[in-house]
Amino acid sequence: MSRRPANGSRPISRGFGPRYLHSCGQLHKGGPDGGVFLFITADHDDLPVPRFPLGFGAVQEAQAVADMEELTARGGPRYAASTGGHLHNLLKVGYDKYIAIFVWTSQDMHALIVVAHPDPASLTHAIATQVAQGITGSEPRHSFEIADLAAEAFDPRFTQADVALHLRTAAPSPDVAAEHARIDRADALVLVYPVHWWSFPGLLKGWIDRVFTNGWAYDAGPDGKLLKKLQRLQVHLIASGGADMRTYARHGYFGAMKTQIDHGIFGYCGARVATSELLVASDAGFPASHLDAAHAIGKRIFPLPQ
Ligand SMILES: Cc1cc2nc3c(=O)[nH]c(=O)nc-3n(C[C@H](O)[C@H](O)[C@H](O)COP(=O)(O)O)c2cc1C
Q1: What is the mean pLDDT of residues 110-114?
Q2: Among 124, 196, 198, 203, residue to substitute to test ligand 1 (most atoms within 8 Å of Cβ)
Q3: In the predicted model, what is the mean pLDDT of residues 156-168?
Q4: Under a CB-based contact definition with an 8 Å cutoff, are residues 11 and 3 in contact?
Q5: Which of 210, 33, 41 is nearest to 114 (CA)?
Q6: Is the pLDDT of residue 25 over 90?
Q7: Is any atom of ligand 1 closer than 6 Å to the C-beta of 87?
Q8: More confident residue, 287 or 8
Q9: Cβ(218)–Cβ(229) below 8 Å
Q10: 251-264 per-position pLDDT tens digit
Q11: 152 against 3, higher pLDDT
Q12: pLDDT at residue 251, as a whole number
């Protein structure tokens, strides 16, 4: 933390979290009213805390929120700034003004919702629609694109061209390049699918096989070092299954799916799986409860001030 005069008048202190907390408390919480406080927080990939439901990012955010709550209680103008979605939590605490960085950072967000089901009247499609409505319902400026793999006739077959791409001896074929482009445009990737044989349907597996390629999703260097290239992407997985949860639990099927899909695929590429939901037909209130759950997931994908 440093202190220096601004234009020869009021002192300014600045500090970097989390170490600023102690100094901030000493200097300002116990000091005179009338301070102007600007908190800048940043969204980042959260680091998990072993055996704890919250990551370090949540702890960091909680520190900023608690500090602002305390300062707010003491009056004076309060300013908030954030480089990402954490701002909505700070705003709940109550501020008088937002500075320009807010405008700059509250950009419209875009989700790609990938649906793997041939029947537009299926529950899977209805779930995808609810997710989409939840996204725009939380903030109309947010946008989504539904990638209906069956209707678009995405070809899941892994061909010689895909082998060449994997070996880095050829460029992506046009259909794969198009998928790369639309994932690149998205801030969040949402996969909605029925469980088929305790995993993805083949169509979606083929999409992953062909699209999450060496060189784009990850870089497997010759030195054996893995570069995870999808760290900016947040992923939401919504599966629906016909079997009941006891069956899933008895055989460890859901755990196996998480290992394979959440960890094995997205973890490998560095993408953070923010939602991993299994909705089953035996759930209370089925099927309406699934649609409600999907809508709620959509609403939380890009949280904003309430
Ligand atoms: C080929 C096939 C395999 C299936 N395998 C499973 C399974 O392994 N576990 C399960 O819970 N449900 C399984 N189901 C049931 C579907 O997951 C269920 O019908 C689906 O979630 C219902 O949603 P929908 O109306 O969108 O198809 C399977 C269905 C089909 C057609």
Answers
A1: 97
A2: 196
A3: 97
A4: yes
A5: 210
A6: no
A7: no
A8: 287
A9: yes
A10: 999 999 999 999 99
A11: 152
A12: 97
- CB contact at 8 A, 105 and 87: yes
Tokens of 223: 């030195």
208: tokens are 């992953």
The encoded tokens of residue 46 equal 């959260």
Cα(63)–Cα(66) distance, integer angstroms: 5
Q: Comparing 164 with 83, which gets the higher pLDDT?
A: 164
Mean pLDDT value of segment 181-187: 96
pLDDT confidence of residue 221:
78
- CB 275, CB 236: distance < 8 Å: yes
Q: What's the confidence (pLDDT) of residue 85?
A: 45
Closest ligand 1 atom, residue 239 Cα = 21
Helix (H) / strand (E) element for 104: namely helix 100-105
What is the 158 CA–ligand 1 centroid distance (Å)? 24
More confidently predicted of 288 and 92:
288
Beta strand segments in the chain, E = 2-5, 11-14, 37-41, 78-82, 97-98, 110-115, 143-148, 188-194, 218-220, 226-228, 234-241, 272-280
> Do 192 and 128 touch, CB atoms closer than 8 A?
yes
Q: Which structure tokens are listed for 228?
A: 């995870």
* Most informative mutation of 193, 197, 198, 291 for ligand 1 (most atoms within 8 A of CB): 197
